[in-house]
Design a protein that fits this description.
The protein has about 325 residues and is an all-beta fold. About 0% of the residues lie in helices and about 40% in strands. The strands form six sheets. It has a six-stranded mixed sheet with strand order 7-14-13-9-10-24, with no helix packed on it. A five-stranded antiparallel sheet has the order 5-6-8-12-11, with no helix packed on it.
C-alpha cells in the first residue's frame, strides 16, 4: 500500500502543524458549521521549515529535518523538568522552552487558538495524546498526561515564539518506568472504528511527492455532515514516522463540515507511519489512528523492541486511544 504524508505549509499555524486551507466553523447541531477565515491556516507545517519536493523514495530536500527530531533548534530548547516518570501513575508534565540566552520564553504567538500544542506518543505509536498545557508567569508549562504503560515516549512541543517568522517543533524523550512489554506497531485496515464512528482513509501516496489523503467519517452507516471545528479546523492530522518518530502535522483542505476531510500530504521517505486524525462531533474530540506504509516494500510494522504496548493499544480495524486536554 502506497500511503504517505507531509505537511503542507507550516508558516503560521501550529500543529502542522496545524495549515493549508483552513476551513472551519462552529457547529453544535445537525446543520453545517459557519466557516472561519481560510487565511488563518496558510503556510503552517508540522515540519520546522519548508521542504522542497524530492524524488520518490528519497528524504524530502530542504533546509530543515522533519519536526520533533531535535531537542534544540534555532536557538530554542525544550527542557523537561524530569524525563523520568512512573507508568500508570498520574503524571504532571512540566517543562520550559528556553531561548538562546538560556531564559524561559514567556511570549508566544498563538496558533490555532493556543500558544503551544503538546503531543505525547510512545515509541510503539500505539497511543496518542494531544495536550494543551498551561503556562505560569515564569515560563514553566504544565499538563496532566496519561502514560498507561512502561516504555519510551516522545514529547513534542509545537509553538511559535513571538516575533518569529515561522513555528517550530521540538522533541524530547520521556522514560516511563514499569513492567515493559514491547509490542509491534499496531496494524489497521483502511477503516477504523472509534466510539461508534467509522473513519475511512482514502488515497495512495508516494514518498517525496504531494498527494491527496481523504478521511471520511460515518456513524451508524450514515455520513457525518456536521463535524465541529477543533482548534480552528474540521480535522487535524498528525503523522509520526516509525523508527525515529519524525513529526508531521497536516491540516485539511476541506472547508465543509464533513463527511470527508481532505489533506495534501507528502511522506519525507519510504517507511511505516502512524496517522492520528482528531475530529470533533457532538462536542467531543475523538482520535482515529491508522498504520500506513509508503514506498514499495516499506515495512508495515515497527520492530517489537521499540516501546511498551499500553493496555489501550489499538487492535486491527480499531482506533488507537487518544487523549485531549484544553
Amino acid at each position: 500500500m502506497n500511503t504517505a504524508l507531509k505537511i503542507a505549509a507550516f508558516a503560521t499555524g501550529l500543529t502542522t502543524a496545524f495549515g493549508a486551507a483552513y476551513g472551519v466553523g462552529h457547529a453544535t447541531g445537525t446543520g453545517p458549521a459557519p466557516r472561519p477565515a481560510a487565511a488563518a491556516h496558510a503556510g503552517h507545517t508540522g515540519q520546522t521549515g519548508h521542504a522542497a519536493e524530492a524524488p520518490a523514495g528519497a528524504e524530502a530536500a530542504g533546509d530543515h529535518l522533519p519536526g520533533g527530531l531535535q531537542v534544540s533548534e534555532r536557538g530554542y530548547t525544550l527542557s523537561l523538568d524530569s524525563p523520568f516518570v512512573t507508568a500508570g501513575a498520574p503524571t504532571d508534565l512540566r517543562f520550559r522552552i528556553l531561548g538562546a540566552d538560556g531564559r524561559p520564553v514567556t511570549d508566544y504567538r498563538p496558533e490555532h487558538e493556543k500558544e503551544l500544542h503538546l503531543i505525547v506518543a510512545p515509541r510503539d505509536l500505539a497511543t496518542f495524546q494531544h495536550l494543551h498545557p498551561t503556562r505560569a508567569a515564569d515560563g514553566t508549562w504544565s499538563a496532566a498526561a496519561a502514560l498507561p504503560a512502561a516504555g519510551e515516549y516522545r514529547v513534542f512541543a509545537d509553538f511559535t515564539p513571538a516575533g518569529a517568522a515561522e513555528g517550530l517543533t521540538l522533541g524530547a524523550d520521556l522514560h516511563a518506568a514499569g513492567d515493559l512489554r514491547p509490542a509491534p506497531l499496531p496494524e489497521t485496515g483502511r477503516s477504523v472504528a472509534v466510539d461508534g464512528y467509522t473513519v475511512t482513509l482514502g488515497g495512495d501516496l508516494t514518498p517525496g511527492r504531494p498527494a491527496r489523503l481523504t478521511l471520511t467519517v460515518t456513524k451508524d452507516g450514515r455520513p457525518v455532515t456536521d463535524l465541529q471545528p477543533y482548534l480552528g479546523a474540521y480535522g487535524h492530522l498528525v503523522a509520526l514516522r516509525a523508527g525515529d518518530l519524525a513529526y508531521l502535522h497536516v491540516h485539511p483542505e476541506s472547508t465543509t463540515p464533513g463527511p470527508e476531510v481532505a489533506f495534501t500530504a507528502t511522506a519525507p521517505s519510504p517507511g511505516a507511519y502512524r496517522l492520528f486524525l482528531d475530529f470533533k462531533h457532538g462536542d467531543t474530540v475523538r482520535t482515529a489512528a491508522f498504520t500506513v506504509a509508503t514506498g514499495d516494500g516499506a515495512p508495515a510494522t515497527a520492530a517489537p523492541s521499540t516501546a511498551a504496548a499500553p493496555s489501550t493499544a489499538a487492535a486491527p480495524s480499531t482506533a488507537a486511544a487518544g487523549a485531549h486536554q484544553h
